[in-house]
Amino acid sequence: MRQDVILQTKIRPPLPRDNGIARDRLARRLTEALNGRLTLVCAPAGFGKTTLLSQWARQSPAPVAWFSIDETDDDLMKFWRTFVRSVAPFVSPALPERLEPLLLAYPNATIRSILDILLSELEEKAPDRLAIVLDDYHTLSDASIHDSLAYAIDHLPDRVHLTISSRTEPPVSTAKWNARGQRLDLSAKQLSFTPEETGRFCRDSAGLALSDERIGQLMRWTEGWAASLQLISLRLSEHDDPERFFDQYRGDDRNLMQYLFEEVFGHLPDELRTFLLRTSALSRFDAPACDALALTGNAGRVLEELRKRNLLLSPLDDAGTWYRYHHLLSLFLRNRLQAEEPGLWPELNRLAALHFAGRGLMDEAIEHALAAGDSAMAAGLLAGHVQTVLRNGELATLLRWMGQLPPEAVPHPLALLHSFVLIVTGQFERARAELSRLERVAEGLEGDEAREIQSGLFFVKINLAFSAGDYDQWYAYAERLPDMLPKSPMFYYLNYNTNEPLVRRTVFGLRGEQPPGIEALSHRIISILDSRGWGHSLFAQYIVQSVAEGYYEWDRLRDGEELLRRVEPVARRQRIGGLLVPNRIVLSRLRWAEGSRDAAFEALEEAAVEVRDYPDADHWLSVLGAARAHLLIREGNLAQAEKELNRLRLQPEKPSLFRVMEYTTLARLLGARRKEKEALQLLETLMRLNKREGSLIGMAEVAALRALIEAQRGYRSAAFGYLEQALDIGHPNGYIRTFLDEGDPMLSLLRQFRDYRLKQRTGLVCEPEEAALGYVSDLLTRFAPKEQPIARPNVPEPLTAKERAVLLEAVRGAVNREIAERLHLTEGTVKVYLSRVYAKLGVSSRIQALHRAEELRLFELE
Predict the structure, then answer these.
(1) Cα three-residue angle 151-694-621, rounded to 5 degrees
(2) CA distance 76 to 142
(3) Domain HTH luxR-type: where (predicted)?
């Protein structure tokens, strides 16, 4: 049993209580509000918000996605991951698989770019009407969650409605939806029980037919407050003389709820009172968890007894396995426990921590260890769970837990990781303060322990300098790296790319920036990592891949190919799509630059076969499909390129930076199809998204494409303006292939731009302008002579070298097993290649393929 057990209790509406009454007047308003954008249900605890919404969710004409929020969701990534899980059953079961790898890219990507994908999925796949309920939103305090939710609300598809339940007005900007008549507000006033509802509630829950006078008394006492009505009806149902209760109680107690809880609690059997007090430490629970704290061995029976007594016990799943106490009851019980046995609270939480840890529910275990004040236990549990937290991208949760631990209780490796996460989340000053503290700690240590913490400190400082853009300090640190490399593997196996088509587009790859000295420094770091046995680590391989991509951009193809060969086997062995896909894309471009077009397609085909069974296969196959379409466009095969892109189901009106290669390739196709206006609109949005992420490489590519399309439609001035933008980025970073890969149209435009600038020169020429013109002249000298396209008559789409080899073996009569052995492939891979051959030749069987190959005389020279 793992964390998904708890997740399921959060993304399903709680079961309505047995004694709940239908509140038709409110349900009708909730249903009518579905035509708008937003519903806010705001009232203090005990007004029946959750009960109302859970009842309505089960009768709503529209499907309802549900998210029960608590304090542990106060983490941007955790919040949105659970949000995605809650809507997935109504949108697409594969939605978490597609979106969670993108969520892991944060903070290397802005949350808005991630939400663009989610909103696009909702637009495309949500049912005709979908309601999403966020219950108990008041438990969240992270401003980034509020800001991101406001963005999501503003861009929700019209057929998606959001309902937020909270004790206070959510700090989310929604006023404009109220002004537009798109927001329904239900407050405590609307939620309060009416006299008719009060009478019906007492009749149904306590079996009492009260007179109008008695109902009036209840209304004066409770003012329609649901929780107090619940307790009064419970007390009335057990009272020997209900009329005497009305005569005795005057409604003038200073704390109505406290009085009612004392009344109800005091009349329970000792066994139930003890059970309630001991299990009050649990925020959610099932029978085994209760047994661990109550020590009775019969928790299942006791929970059933409490449920029958209607004691504010809320079921969290359809099976009636998981429960929670109403907040007001939980607060009363915890205060009572503190008053009666103040020393028991830490012990109960320790028992809960041990129990949940034994079941693999580590988040709950850590929370209870912290509540117990047992720092050693909490730190130990966290140390064993930290890799999962990092893998899930729950950095805010990790920082919150670390913030509750006294520094002296935190193991040094965990403290170093804390500093590293502060850097990753941009909290540089806090990171510096933590590093200073650790330096003071290190001064008091000796031997191996001192050396290990000092090396860890050094490694984190290098990352701080890098992330803060302090390259001079970064270079200075690198000189000391050989003597200060840490031994702990936790520093070397982070995955730095979960979605980008090129490593140079990531923060790790400096988003395309190539500062002076980066080449020499990178090789020095690689050499040091090799010498210390970390050469095959992800950290080392990402550096190698980043340098290889830089070499390609600098038009140093042989140097780039050498490094690409080094990365490929490691990326395949460790099944890292973020390494393998960029590696094969760059190799494909390199082969095309050499004139080996079949080999260029082959590199992409082999990568597609490789990543097909990766966990994030859909994303990487989409990237590879776009890369393949790009080659087809360069080849002039626009029809096939369009087919390739159509498979990707792109929405040009709502492009996302997480599919940057797909949408950039679509813009290329639109330009090639002479749909310049559509292409420029798409590129304008892509430029805005690239600027938002600070991606220099993306901005340069988009600017170059805008220049070419403006030139194509005869707008020379606009073309020169965009070209200058691309050159301004490319010049200081040494970009070459960004321009060369655009071929003859770019060659012509650069010549025109150079000639125009030379004609504009008057008098003295400033040094920057001279350097810029020198850069353009250098680019012009690098363009190769025009290549003649390879004729491929009668074949709708060319076969790659590997596909030709597989088909040739089939022509010779080999079966799949023999083909696999001869070509060093698996039988499954052979089947993939044959299916692609069939598709390209327009056939459906091996016999038809052989006849078609003979007709086309594909192997006359073989």
Answers:
(1) 80
(2) 7
(3) 792-857
What are the structure tokens assigned to 523, written together? 């090789």
Q: Which domain, by its residues, includes 206?
A: 195-254
Contact indicator for 303, 290 with CB cutoff of 8 Å: yes
Q: Which pairs count as long-range contacts for 166-170, CB under 8 Å and 24+ apart, including other chains?
A: 166/40, 166/41, 166/42, 166/136, 166/137, 166/138, 167/42, 167/43, 167/44, 167/45, 167/136, 167/138, 168/42, 168/138, 169/40, 169/42, 170/40, 170/42, 170/137, 170/138, 170/146
pLDDT of residue 9: 84
Total residue count of the chain as it appears in this document: 862
**The token pair that represents 830 in the structure block:** 């052979």
* CATH number of the domain encompassing residue 666: 1.25.40.10
CATH number for position 828: 1.10.10.10
Question: Is residue 772 domain-resident?
Answer: no
State the pLDDT at residue 248: 60
**Within this chain, do residues 216 and 187 fall inside the same structural domain, yes or no?**
no
Inter-axis angle of helices 111-125 and 143-154, nearest 10? 40
Instruction: Determine contact, residues 122/157, Cβ cutoff 8 Å.
Output: yes
Whether residue 690 sits in one domain with residue 640: yes
pLDDT digits (tens, 9 = 90+) for 419-474: 888 887 778 888 888 888 988 888 887 777 777 788 788 878 877 887 777 777 77
pLDDT 10s digits, 602-651? 999 999 999 988 877 888 999 999 999 999 999 999 999 999 999 988 88
Name the residue among 509, 512, 430 with its Cα closest to residue 704: 512
Contact 491, 537 (CB under 8 A): no
In this structure, the answer to whether residues 518 and 596 fall within a common structural domain is yes
Alpha-carbon distance 302 to 242, whole Å? 27
The more confidently predicted of residues 66 and 495 is 66
Q: How confident is the model at residue 63 (pLDDT cuts 50, 70, 90)?
A: very high
Number of separate domains in the chain = 4
Residue whose token pair is 């549990």? 381
Query: Distance between CA atoms of 191 and 40, rounded to whole angstroms?
Result: 12
CATH code where residue 101 lies:
3.40.50.300
Residues 674 and 812 placed together within one structural domain of the fold: no
CA angle 210, 212, 215 (to 5 degrees): 65
66 lies in the same domain as 159: yes
Cα distances (Å, whole numbers) of residue 856 to 606, 640, 796, 853, 859: 25, 19, 11, 5, 9
What is the rounded average pLDDT for all residues in the chain? 84
Q: Which residues pair with 135 in a beta bridge?
A: 68
**What Å distances lie between residue 437 and 60, 75, 396, 414, 577, CA to CA?**
56, 26, 21, 14, 38
Closest to 145 in 3D by CA, of 170, 128, 127: 170
Alpha helices in 507-650 (DSSP H): 518-531, 538-553, 557-574, 577-594, 597-611, 617-635, 638-646
Q: Which of 715, 734, 768 is the last residue of a domain?
A: 715
**Boundary (domain end) residue, out of 167, 191, 215:** 191
Residues 578 and 674 in one domain: yes
Asked if residue 446 belongs to a domain, the reply is no
* 682 shares a domain with 557: yes
Q: What 3-state DSSP class applies to 141?
A: coil
Residue 226 confidence (pLDDT): 75
**Residue 170 domain-assigned (yes or no):** yes
- Check whether residue 668 and residue 816 sit in a common domain: no
pTM of the model: 0.67
Residue among 840, 847, 806, 799 nearest 825 (CA): 806
Cis check: omega of the bond before 14, within 30 degrees of 0: no
In the DSSP assignment, the letter for residue 657 is G
Residue range 555-573: mean pLDDT, rounded:
93
Residue 67: inside a domain: yes
Identity (one letter) of the amino acid at 434? E
